[in-house]
Amino acid sequence: MGEPEIKKTSAIKMVGIKVATSLAADKTSLLWQRFMKLRGGIKNASSKDLYSVQVYGKNFMTGDFDTDSIFEKWAGMSVTDHDTSYKILENLVIPQGLYAVFTHHGTAKKFADTSKYIFENWLPASEYRLANRPHFEVLGSTYKGPENPDSEEHIWIPIEEK
């Protein structure tokens, strides 16, 4: 795993669906199955990229977070503007801010190794600490699915200077 690219992003407007879940009772697969059936109805997508977003809350920031901790998981797409006509899809804004952007290569099962490196090695040794904003992954043209070893996704970790 290499060094991340440090990027400052503008606010990102998203449309998608969400679920309350935990790492132990992971509902990610069901969330994505449902979203993929709905994404064709998004009229104003700003790209074809998919976004997997986690809103962890204060317990994640304070270290009071374990595999049973509940957080909000989103599946969605970025949009040029929020449309209020959707019946099922919801709006989310990822606030502007500084992010460490890592590239994960491999299957979803190997994602835990990438996360371990980010949070146990890179972050403590860096000049940054976690910021209390959503974490997200961008699944673009190089994303080939959760079981494909050649798959690639970009992990955006919210940071601020120590």
Molecular structure report:
The chain is built from 3 helices and 9 strands. The chain is globular. Strands 1, 2, 3, 4, 5, 6, 7, 8 and 9 form a 9-stranded antiparallel beta sheet that branches. Helices cover about 20% and strands about 40% of the residues. The model has no long low-confidence stretch (mean pLDDT about 90). The protein starts with a strand and ends with a strand. It has helices at about 30-40, 60, 110-125, and strands at about 5-10, 10-20, 50-55, 70-80, 90-95, 95-105, 130, 135-140, 150-160. It is α+β, with helices and mostly antiparallel strands and about 160 residues long.
Task: Provide a concise account of the structure shown.
The model has no long low-confidence stretch (mean pLDDT about 90). Helix content is about 20%, strand content about 40%. By secondary structure, the protein is of the alpha+beta class.
